[in-house]
């Protein structure tokens, strides 16, 4: 548990240092998705999107991973951080895709990841999970290949939909 706190502290200090340099716009998002980590998990949570321009975008997220491990229901908290990159110039329809680099961590593993996202809304990422301490959940070890498919819905869109 101390390793998780240490990693979260380092990520917080890193992003606070970045945000202190520039005035950023913050957007809230609801995220739902699928995570494969030696087991299938549903993923529900929220993200904050920080941007100054649309070439480099930062995201911080927190969610709950839910699934069945060895025929027992399990829930794990997850934090994630992403940097979205697209340096295309003179694009008519803003930026349609971004390369994504980031990391996610739970109380059982930490996983660096890479991938791409369409409009910052539909993400497909992959990485490798490294176990932290007792890495198992209900006797199932959580390390190795990590795949994520996530839909990020801006809360402004949800608000406008129900007007």
Describe this structure in words.
This is Outer membrane protein beta-barrel domain-containing protein. The chain is α+β, with helices and mostly antiparallel strands and 163 residues long. It is built from 2 helices and 10 strands. The chain has helices spanning 2-21, 155-161; strands at 25-36, 40-51, 56-69, 72-85, 97-106, 109-118, 122-131, 136-137, 140-141, 144-154. The protein has an 8-stranded antiparallel barrel. The protein starts with a helix and ends with a helix.
Summarize the entry for a quick read:
This is Outer membrane protein beta-barrel domain-containing protein. The chain has helices at 2-21, 155-161, and strands at 25-36, 40-51, 56-69, 72-85, 97-106, 109-118, 122-131, 136-137, 140-141, 144-154.
Radius of gyration over C-alpha positions, nearest whole angstrom: 16 Å
Strand order of the largest sheet: 1-2-3-4-5-6-7-10
Distance between the termini: 43 Å
Q: Could you tell me the number of beta strands? A: 10
Note the quaternary state here.
Answer: single chain
Give the CA-based shape. Answer: globular
Order of helices and strands: HEEEEEEEEEEH
Portion of residues in beta strands equals over 45%
Largest sheet: 8 strands, antiparallel, barrel
- Number of helical segments? 2
Percent in helix? 10-25%
Contiguous uncertain segments of 5+ residues: none
Instruction: Determine the mean pLDDT.
Output: 82
What class, by secondary structure content?
alpha+beta
């Amino acid at each position: 548990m101390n390793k998780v706190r240490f990693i979260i502290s380092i990520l917080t200090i890193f992003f606070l240092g970045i945000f202190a340099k520039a005035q950023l716009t913050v957007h809230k998002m609801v995220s739902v998705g699928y995570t494969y980590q030696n087991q299938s998990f549903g993923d529900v949570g929220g993200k904050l999107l920080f941007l100054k321009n649309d070439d480099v975008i930062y995201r911080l997220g927190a969610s709950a991973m839910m699934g069945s491990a060895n025929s027992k229901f399990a829930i794990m908290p997850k934090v994630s951080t992403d940097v979205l990159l697209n340096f295309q110039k003179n694009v008519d329809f803003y930026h349609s895709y971004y390369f994504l680099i980031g990391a996610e961590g739970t109380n059982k593993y930490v996983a660096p990841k890479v991938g791409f996202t369409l409009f910052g809304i539909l993400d497909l990422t992959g990485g490798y999970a490294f176990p932290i301490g007792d890495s198992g959940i209900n006797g199932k070890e959580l390390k190795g290949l990590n795949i994520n498919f996530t839909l990020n819905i801006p809360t402004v869109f949800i608000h406008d939909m129900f007007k």
